[in-house]
Amino acid sequence: MTTLQKGDKAPDFSAVDQDGKIHSLSDYKGKKLVVFFYPAASTPSCTIEVCNLRDNYGKFIAEGYALLGVSADTKKKQSNFKNKHELPFPLLADEDKKVIEAFGVWGPKKFMGREFDGIHRTTFIINEKGIIDEVILKVKTKEHSDQILK
To answer: Mean per-residue pLDDT for 47-74?
Structure first.
């Protein structure tokens, strides 16, 4: 699991979103950024999570936050997910898992009695200077916006 903690410099990253646009940490310099990692687009828990963030997006904008969702899904799958749920923020298609591994959220998981490697649902709140202000390891999908904006 991630070894990144509050006070650490956020890893520099670069990845494409659902439309093929490249996003890098440097694009968000001087802005507050929420980078949330989720296991897979269009799964029930991930859908609940992104819809919660979508429904509270105005609060994020009012507080000066940009949001980036990240999973290992393809651009097409991310695009379908974004369009279906009318998400106002980009979803990075990190198929090679470079961003996922840089943030340390790939590793062993257990689900319904079986073990496998996958993405741990984790959120990083990064300040204007690129420093991690908070790491949320126990994401509550229905209350995720409240966890971030508390």
So the answer is: 97
